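DUF2634 domain-containing protein: structure tokens wanted.
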Amino acid sequence: MPSIFPTIPAEPLAMAETKQKQVQFGRSVRFDFNSGEFIMTPTGKIAQSTDLDAWLEWCQKALNTERYRYLVYSRSFGQEYDDLIGSHLTREGNESEITRMTTECLLVDPRTASVQDFTFHWEDDRVYFTCKVLSVRGENGQINGEVKM
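Answer:
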């Protein structure tokens, strides 16, 4: 008698890697995160970015968005840096948590392969950081972030 539970063969690792490399990077609108305005072309249209730049634009947007705050975003989009306020961790503890939160935030996107090489700079109650993000295509870029403690 055949089983009522279907069996699905495990996907070979080579096929999984091939699927990762086929991830579409798409397009995005350009945004100036310092001024809070869209970047315009000389003709007055909103500037577009493609492939690597579109992905880096997504990474920066994800790091600038608080998770669970806006209903328009899924529950997996954004960061939770506000949880660090009042946590009374040491600098090393805060840096470790920022590294973890940033990595979790960016790895949600299937275009992101890894997040690494964090550097931190402290000024009063703020910490500025940079990190290197690596795409599944092997391309990389640098992302900047800021956390108020």
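The chain has one domain: 26-148. Strands lie at 27-29, 31-32, 37-38, 48-50, 112-123, 126-135, 140-148.

Cheers.
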